[in-house]
Amino acid sequence: MSALTFDKSELGNLEYSLQREMLATDRIGGYMSTTIVCCNTRRYHGLMVAPIDDSGRTYVLLSSLDETVIQHDQTFNLALHRFPGVYEPRGHKYITDFEYTPTPTITYRVGGVILRKEMLWIHKRTQLMIRYTLVDAHSETRLRLRPFLAFRDKHALTHANMEADGHSYPAVNGVKCRLYGSFPWLYLQTSKPGTEFVPAPDWYYNFEYLQDLARGYEGHEDLMTTGYFETELKKGESIIFSASLDEMGSTKTIEEVFAASIARRTHKIDFLSCLEHSARQFVIRRPGGRTEVIAGYPWHGVSGRQSFVALPGITLLQEHKEDCIDVLDTEVRNMRDGMFAATASAAVAADAPLWFFWTLQRLGGTIGDEAVWNRYGGAMKEVLEAYRRGIAGRVALHGNGLVWASSDEIPLTWMNSMIGGRPVTPRNGYQVEVNALWYNAVRYTLELARSQGDKAFVKAWEALPERIENAFRELFALPEGYLADYVDETGPDKSIRPNMILACSLPYKPVDDRMRIDVIRTVRQHLLTPKGLRTLSPRNPLYRGSQEGTPEERDFASKNGSVWPWLLSFYVRACFDIDGDSFLPQAEEILANFEEDIQSYGIGSIGELYDADPPYAARGAISQAWSVGAVLEIYHMVLTRRPAPEKTKGSATRKTAAKAGKTTEKAAKTPGKPAKDTAAKAATAGKSAAKTAEKSGKKAAEPAAGKARKATAPSGGTKKKTMK
């Protein structure tokens, strides 16, 4: 796997550096995020973005920190900000190096001065520390640090106002600030005794956030500075700047906390170590014993569905079963009337509680089925009973055994984008993935109940799986050779979407091998790309290949074309289930397609989604839990099937791939052959999945070859103040 490296010669190229964003979290809900040259391009960027109470809301407290080197009465501002039409100051021209491990580090060179800046978020407390080291200098050198404060919700923007308190108040070797009385104090301190703080409160106007503007949102705000720190530095000397919601008792404490924290940092030097580190950032510990999963940084909160889907990849595969259990326990404690709360409730997400069972199946592989039943058996039975009774007038179990989910107010599946108060992809009825998950949940619960002697539950539910399976095949199987996306009163929706892949990849599948082969072939032909699965076939007239444009255009594209990595792990698993080890070369190539991503968008992580057309540009949140979990899942599927090194020498791999290609071609030409003879041979093409996906991508611009059934479609000039 490739190492995490950056082109030093390109760091001064803003087209290169502003597209690369870094993230560090404190594991309790706060984070630091900005570009690798510390120029904020989103309202969500900031050096300290953190919760201040139990509301779940997060606030940008410290937006940025400007560094200025002073020599011979000349000032050299190392910062970089965007104002309308101009970058000022242009400190990126002094950057000579950027390193991400063990902590984000930038090296500046100004003439004979070399200054190193190490940014460190402290785990399990809301504290940012930045250590500046004067690596080299030949004359008297002073360092000035000017903090810029926002004190606002991360989704909002702030503007100059008379209510903000620009005063600074004394603290140990620093000051404390609080722009508004409803916020806690922010302590700004340094590790060097005698560092001077010069009060100079002022508003700076019209900071411009290019990513917000590009996404169709307002992108200008004003920031407050209450003054600046200044001190002399000698060659080889360091000073640590600390911003915290708790006061550090002494300069020595600041140094000790920094030293202890950086010593514990893992080295993120390759693909796997980066993703494992990224995975740990999603699991957060809240007050009151709550453990939750942040769906994505920097703007997403907690999503029940995404938590369940992501958990195995971001916890169990790293042997962090305690994190997985704590998240599940938090969800179970919040259950009411047999149903999870908030975004994990079927009242707003018809499939979310059913993913709970899938997560438990994965957990069972770690702690054993008996432990799963003892801890969660009661919750499992309560959830199934809730579906049987019906939920919020939106979700009902019908006599045929299938789950019907319908609402005119909110979309109930993961395809939940809204435009003008209406769903982008209305899917009321029997949804293919909801009922695949329902079948899996019922079968799994029955399996555990039988093994643990719960005869009453078995007797009450044992007849249901056969009814579900029969109804599923009758309603969803299409003569065209794939599964309907949903079925409503008018019949099946024949739009080719990726949701059907779940019916082929869950532990319990309501379809036979023949149908699984056909679904995989259809997905590969229409939806597979190097970055994930498209949400709609390019042949559909509703298809959109780009995520650019207004919020409405992006919302429409997100579920009508855009590529989602989280689905890819289910495709890979389905192919392995059918094709066995002969799919290994394709899986390895799919995995390799993400190596570049960890250093070109969200550093060390995988983003939320991608454009559906080449070159498949990364879009959305820079670090998404179920995307990271999916790639880690694929990595471990590959790892467990990879042969011993001595067996991969020579042409063994090539022969396996060639054999897979021949058997697939043969299966395609003999559709009437029994599934048991072709199941192990027909899931993948001899050509690599990535190359096939590339061909599929190029077809995106081609005219539709045949119409699929249509889903219902929903009919800065303020004053500027440059930096001082």
UniProtKB/TrEMBL annotation:
Q: Where is this region: Disordered?
A: 539-558, 644-724
Q: Name one GO biological process term.
A: glycogen catabolic process
- Renumbered to this chain, the signal peptide range is none
- One Pfam match, given by its short name, reads GDE_N
Keyword terms: Transferase
Compositionally biased tracts (Low complexity): 650-661, 680-691, 702-715
Q: Where in this chain does the record put each Glycogen debranching enzyme C-terminal domain?
A: 278-633
Ranges annotated as biased composition (Basic and acidic residues): 662-679, 692-701
- Domain Glycogen debranching enzyme bacterial and archaeal type N-terminal: where? 20-239
Classification via InterPro entries = 6-hairpin_glycosidase_sf (IPR008928), 6hp_glycosidase-like_sf (IPR012341), AGL/Gdb1 (IPR010401), GDE_C (IPR032790), Glycogen_debranch_N (IPR024742)
Gene3D superfamilies named in the record:
1.50.10.10
The organism's superkingdom is given as Bacteria
**What GO MF annotations does this protein's record show?**
4-alpha-glucanotransferase activity; amylo-alpha-1,6-glucosidase activity
* UniProt cross-references to PANTHER family, sorted A to Z: GLYCOGEN DEBRANCHING ENZYME
This protein is called 4-alpha-glucanotransferase
